[in-house]
Amino acid sequence: MRLETGSRGGVGERDVWEAADALLVSGARPTVERVRAQIGRGSPNTVAPLLDGWFRALGKRIQDPAAFQTEAPAPSVPQPVLDAAQRFWEAALDAAREEIEARLRSEREDLARIRADLDLRCTEFAIERANFEADVRAQRTLVDNYEARLRDARGAVELAQAERAALIAGQERLLSQHEQERSALGAELASARSEMLALREEITSVREGCDRDLKDGLLKLDRALTAAANASKIAADAKERLARTSAELEAAGRHAEAIERDRALLQTVFETSRNDVKAVSGDLERQRALRHSLQSAFDAERERNRELLDLLAASQRQIAEGLRAIEHLKLAARPRLPGKLRRAARIAT
Questions:
Q1: Domain coordinates of the chain in residue numbers?
Q2: Is the pTM of the predicted complex or chain greater than 0.70?
Q3: Res 277 pLDDT > 60
């Protein structure tokens, strides 16, 4: 029988078969580890299929003793030796089968333990996932409450900003109106100055025209003085309007400062509301813990009241039974009492 050798120093079929034959002759059962130890090298993945081939060919080799010789024919083997080898082969097969079944049972037990461990881990993971989802829902509720309060605060700030913009627009309109009035007053003042200049020219012409009638000159002088008085009054009114305009401008500046202070106050209120949201979150947790403790105390008190009511009902029943027994005793003892005692008993009752 021609056997293949290993390539490049590896383990071949010849090496495995020779090692197995040597172990069989020495009285040991050929196994993968024993064959590897006999050869001195080789991996289990290489030796195992070659050893299986040796076991498959062992029956035919026992029937044909020449098959044990790989190079030259061997002498004939006595029948008792063949019988012993056949029994040893069967025993080796039974031992190998038992070893394989033991390994399978061990692997099945390991797989069962691994499956139980996986089921336990899956259960723990499901519990942790449920707890995590509950925490996420609680956090989302807190975030939604915080966002709602933040939206309210933003709405208040936007409303304040809109009011501030409206006030600024009103101030701008007021300033524009005052500017128009000041322009109108300037025009009136310029007109008054022009009139004064015209009056001065008329006075100059009057003075130059000394040959004119004095009475006409005096009348013209009176008219000029009246016009000058009116012009002075107009100028005084213009100054008064300018003073009022300046006062209104100062008031508008103070109002703008007040609006700026209100904006700073609203910013402070916004920061305070943010801190209040955090404080409310802490208060909510404390209220939950307090509600839990109050519920526990209420349940304990309710159980205690139930027990007291049961004791009270039992006591009332006992008292009622005692009263009925006393009445029976009175009825049973009343005929045997003397007359005075019966009267005393009636008086006592």
A1: 7-119, 317-348
A2: no
A3: no
